[in-house]
């Protein structure tokens, strides 16, 4: 088992580059199942989650070639239409192959994803969408099976703007007969990136990035070349890293528009942010002010940045109220931050963070991906040494994290944990 060791206290300085977005590349890779011809993806981050979705695709018949951050995928024929538990257990986003399989083969059998550390995360909205398009849904032995002789466009209203349901339904509808109108759709930038990729394959999707998406079904799609958008959550994490260590960092390869709610909160907290020709420069030379945060679907404050902002608020001047409205159990990092000296109280879906002057290093564990990121941020600012265990969570979503942070002056390393037998 590996762990990350950080000695805090170094202000971070220099330039850091953001990789392609995990949450954009996963559905885009799933969408490559929609055609028999070759697709080429650029700026694909080297992440554990990308490895998992590639294994799922290979199981389904995909030929995948990797060269650095480029992936070439071709699925000339489907070898299977089943995504087994082995993969879906490792990564919930494996469920995103259901829409493309249903569209291409008229059938899919996918292991039920089940809950995870941050919430129960049902998939009822995905299934409601498939059923509206004409699929028959059956449950059994831990699997969901969907079949359809033909998918037909429909008007679908999502009770909640679920990112995954919007993507899955969109991918099913691109080859359906007639028009699908998806109302109360998720508006996240990753939805727009997926729609752009699908449109470059020949799909006819309008309105992605707004609450109403219109999809006119086409008979077939062809492979395309597509560059994945930069990861806004990775970028936000580096903005906080600079602020929490009172450093001065240029974050490159960033779409500032995608980070509006994060940038606004950081500025409210007293962090200095300047747009340059090369990216976003972030500097901070004093203790930040406490600010209140409420997570919401895009364009609201992203739940995937809640834990990292909580780390920053832990050392802010004054009290911050952080409310999590997207997931019902996304405060797993609180107990770990408390081990480092943070003063946080949870009341239902709200965390009350009373800023302290400084945190101290401790042995802590990453309970999920962003919880792990928050602990690394806290450790970068803490006095002394912090050991973060369960780092496989962090490897899911941050490409070359250690090297990138070392490159801006962090004292951070990855070590193999000794196991005595
Ligand atoms: C791979 C990926 O892109 N993951 C992101 C995606 O996850 P994911 O697509 O799973 O998130 P959703 O937007 O679907 O989930 C948001 C909320 O809706 C609920 N829900 C969702 C689907 C459903 O059928 N029924 C239902 O009740 C969930 O339990 C959750 O409470 O969006 C989340 C919200 O921005 C992010 O935190 C994740 O990083
Ligand atoms: C929750 C996340 O991812 P996933 O939906 O893949 O669990 C995340 O990226 O923070």
Automatic annotation (TrEMBL):
Name the UniProt record assigns to this protein: UDP-N-acetylglucosamine 1-carboxyvinyltransferase
GO biological process: cell division; cell wall organization; peptidoglycan biosynthetic process; regulation of cell shape; UDP-N-acetylgalactosamine biosynthetic process
Top-level class of the enzyme under EC nomenclature: transferase
Record carries keyword Iron: no
A Pfam family it matches: EPSP_synthase
Binding site for UDP-N-acetyl-alpha-D-glucosamine: 92, 121-125, 304, 326
SUPFAM superfamilies per UniProt: EPT/RTPC-like
Reactions performed catalytically: phosphoenolpyruvate + UDP-N-acetyl-alpha-D-glucosamine = UDP-N-acetyl-3-O-(1-carboxyvinyl)-alpha-D-glucosamine + phosphate
GO molecular function, one term: UDP-N-acetylglucosamine 1-carboxyvinyltransferase activity
Record-listed 2-(S-cysteinyl)pyruvic acid O-phosphothioketal modification sites: 116
Keywords: Cell cycle, Cell division, Cell shape, Cell wall biogenesis/degradation, Cytoplasm, Peptidoglycan synthesis, Pyruvate, Transferase
EC number: 2.5.1.7
Entry-linked NCBIfam families: murA, PRK09369.1, PRK12830.1
